[in-house]
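re: ur question from earlier - yeah i can do the single chain one, its not a big deal. heres the input i used so u can compare w yours
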Amino acid sequence: MAEENQDGQEKTEEPTQRRLDKAAEEGRVLTSKEVMVFTSLAMGLVLYLALGPFMRSGLSAWGGLFVIDSALNLDTLGLVKVRYAFWLVILVTLIVGIPLMIVTLLTQIGVGGLNFSTQALHFKGNRIDPLAGLKRIFSVKGLVELAKSVLKVALLFSIGGIVIYMQLPELIQLSASSLGLAIERASAAVPYLIGGLLVGLFIIAVIDFAWQRHTHTQSLRMTIKEVKDESRQTEGSPEVRAKIRRMQYQQSQESSQQREALGNVGDATVVITNPTHFAVALKYASGQMGAPTVLAMGRGVIAQQIIEKAEEHDVRTLRIPMLARALFFTSEIGGEITEGLYNAVAVILAYVFRINNDETLEMPDLTLPPELRFDEYGNLETEAN
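and the output i got, formated as tokens:
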């Protein structure tokens, strides 16, 4: 049965990535103590087998601390022994502690990833609330933890008993052996005991990992309302998303239309540019009824391609930024230019016809209505600009 939130709504939805990230910020990541115990003990067995040949010399060095040599100065003997013991403990700690620390870190990375969160250190009143504590103890999770602990103790005691029983003939002879031989025989039995315990711990670790992953996911599940609320916060309302999709579709259609119109540039009378941000190809034939038409237009890469096509077909190109922007933002491909640009475009066409007839003329000055003066983003320019 799905969990419910405080409003009584069932948490049926899988946690979103945002919910997982927020949980990580709060220090709530997947972890398993039993997996940690298993990998640490496994590493301990590896260290025991690897350092076995050096253990005798280590024990001898430790035993030497309790031997008093009469040749030494008794006044400084205590200080020498303490210093020697200190460095011996440091050495053993480094040899054993560093590998165990590395294994612990790698285990957590494999289970749920490393996470350093200061929020987990913040004081929370419910942690010291007796009622909340009792609820945790007698909750399903608390009962499962109790059952798991009982199973672990029973399983490990059983495995340990079986291993000791199998080694019993060797262990019985320890009392009749010398100290060195007894230590050697006992040391030989240790790997079997640890190996048997590892088998039991592996079973427990697998069960615990599956349970912890299940409870962790369950605790982060969301209601349908929570998913919708989060979606609105991250992506906006459905109406806004629909509008954005319509705009994206419109832009895609316009880009496709602009690319298809590139083949018409060769038929243009003139191309007006800005100089490379915008390009508009116009066509007008002498005696034509109606206003000049837009054969092609575009900005950025499309504009550059229009200019290149015009050069290939010897179409006149004029750099008139203000007019290029006005044509781009007020015209459509295949349509006539807007009425407010008739005069300006008529002046430019007359100029093009005359210079195409080898007349030498200066570029005419143009004046556009204020409502047709745009910047490169399509915003109306102010009088100050």
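The mean pLDDT is 79. not sure if urs matches, ping me
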